[in-house]
Amino acid sequence: MSVTSSQKLNKGELTQLLDVARESIRGHFSDELPRPPQLDLYGKKLLRPGACFVTLEVDGELQGCLGTVTANEPLVLEVHNKARDSAYQDRRFMPLTEEQLDRLMIEVSVLSEPQALEVESEQALIDYLENHRDGVILSDHHLQALFLPQVWQQLPTPEVFLRHLKQKAGWPANYWSDTLTVKTFTVTSIKGRYFQLSDAF
């Protein structure tokens, strides 16, 4: 089965995905029932299964961020669903309100397929991340945590990045285990306001 990679999308296709995310959120505030994207309007690459995250910010503060690392559905549908989920299903935040829309920023991140990284120690992982500011997934038994590459902007050193990632999974900051698995990935992303300039006229 062909899968959409983050490296294969051009700016026009990413812009289409951003519009899909906007429409998914807009549909919640419409008098009509929200509708999924009309698939025959999109090219082959956007119809392939793809993994993505949709991140929402209001006044520069995180308002929601949900996604998947597994490509199960057509990418355009995955973006539609994850935009809706980030706006109304992220349990860390109150659901998005209509009053927040004029201050809303949306970012769509399309993921590459995660690759297993063999490291023998946390220091080896830190050394790798010094030169590779990738997205990271840590897993051990039933616990898992993921940070997108964009998180490096807020947590710029590998030590701090990993400490927060482990805390997100529910582990202590100094946690390490021989059974811990590490995967890395990259993203291609696009970010824009919920209201486009043309919406103001």
Topology, pairings included?
Elements: H1 11-28, H2 44-47, E1 52-58, E2 61-67, H3 75-88, E3 104-111, E4 115-116, H4 122-131, E5 135-140, E6 143-147, H5 158-169, E7 181-185, E8 187-193
Antiparallel strand pairs: 1-2, 1-3, 3-8, 4-7, 5-6, 5-7
Describe the structure.
β5 (135-140) and β6 (143-147) form a beta hairpin. The protein has helices at residues 11-28, 44-47, 75-88, 122-131, 158-169; strands spanning 52-58, 61-67, 104-111, 115-116, 135-140, 143-147, 181-185, 187-193. The strands form two sheets. A four-stranded antiparallel β-sheet has the order 2-1-3-8, covered by helices on one side. A four-stranded antiparallel β-sheet has the order 4-7-5-6, with helices on one face. With 201 residues, it is α+β, with helices and mostly antiparallel strands.
Helix-residue proportion:
25-40%
Low-confidence stretches: none
The structural domain count equals 2
CATH fold name of the largest domain: Glycoprotein, Type 4 Pilin
CATH C-level of the largest domain: Alpha Beta
Q: How many β-strand runs?
A: 8
Average per-residue pLDDT, rounded, comes to 92
How far apart are the first and last residues' alpha carbons, in Å?
44 Å
Q: What's the number of helices?
A: 5
Features:
29% helix; single chain; Glycoprotein, Type 4 Pilin; globular; 5 helices; four-stranded antiparallel β-sheet; alpha+beta; 2 domains; Dna Ligase, domain 1
Give a quick summary of the entry:
The chain is α+β, with helices and mostly antiparallel strands and 201 residues long.
